[in-house]
C-alpha cells in the first residue's frame, strides 16, 4: 500500500465523519427538529473522499441535492453545516438554504443543488475561469444517475469538450433516480456517453476508496495539464431512502441489509489497511471516537444556536463586485 499513514488516517476520518454526520441527521430528522427536506449520502463515502483527496485550494466542486458528503470531503466546516441544516442564523449559509443548498466558496464548494443536473453548467464556468486565469485548478461536477439524463449535463459535456475545459464529471450511480432504477432509465452506458462526446471515461467500484482514489488520479492530472474533460462512472449505493421519509418500497426486501453487510466502504477500507498492517483497528477506533465527539458537539451547538430574524430576510440577496 503506497499511501502514508497520515493520508490513510485523514481519508478514514473524512469517510467516518460523513457516515456519522448522516446517521445523526437521520436520527435527528425523525424527532422533527430539522426543517425541510434531507437527502443522505451514507453508503457513498468512498466516492466523495476518493475524488476530493486529490483536490486542493485551487479546485472547486459542485454537488447535488445529496450534498453533505461532498461538502465534508472538500473541507467545509461540520458545525456550520449542521447549523445550516437546523436553519440557524450562523449556519454555513445563514440558515437560509438548509440541507440542499450548503455552500462555502472559501473551500471551493460551489454548493449542493436542488436542481437535478444544476451543477455541471456551474462547473464549466468555474473551469473556464481556471483556464483563463491559468491557476492550474480543476472543477469537479458530482452528478447522480438521474442527473446524467438531464439536458444541462449533456450540454455541459459538449461545452467542456469544445472549450477543452479542466473538468471531471463524476456520475455517482447509486442505482436509483429517486425510485427509478438506473438499469432501466439510462440508455446505453455512461462510458458510451463519454465516448460520444470525445471524452475519456472510466468505471469504478464506488464501495472501494482505493479504487476511486486511483481512478481519479489520471483524469484530474490530465485536466490540470490541459488535457480537457473526463468522466468517471462510480457505481455505489445509498443506505437510506431518496429522502428522509422514503419507505423504499421499490427496493428488494433485504437489499440494504445485504449491502451494509458486504459493501460498506468504511468496513472495506478498515479491512484493507489492517490486513496490510499499515493501521491497526485501535488507530481507526480513535478516529471514530474523535468523530463521534465532533458530531455530538455539532448537534448540541446547533440546537442552542439562534434562528434568523426578520432583519436577516433581505440580506445576502445581491452580490457586489
Label the overall shape. Answer: globular
Mean pLDDT across all amino acids = 96
Total strand segments: 7
Give the count of helical stretches: 12
Tell me what the structure shows.
The chain is of the alpha/beta class and 321 residues long. It has one domain: Rossmann fold. Helix content is 45%, strand content 10%. It contains 12 helices and 7 strands. The strands form 2 sheets. The protein has a 5-stranded parallel β-sheet, with helices on both faces. It has a two-stranded antiparallel sheet with strand order 4-5. α9 (209-224) links the parallel β6 and β7 (230-235). α4 (78-85) packs across α12 (281-304) and α5 (119-133) runs parallel beside α6 (151-162). The longest helix is centred in the first third of the chain and has 26 residues, at 5-30. The model has no long low-confidence stretch (mean pLDDT 96).
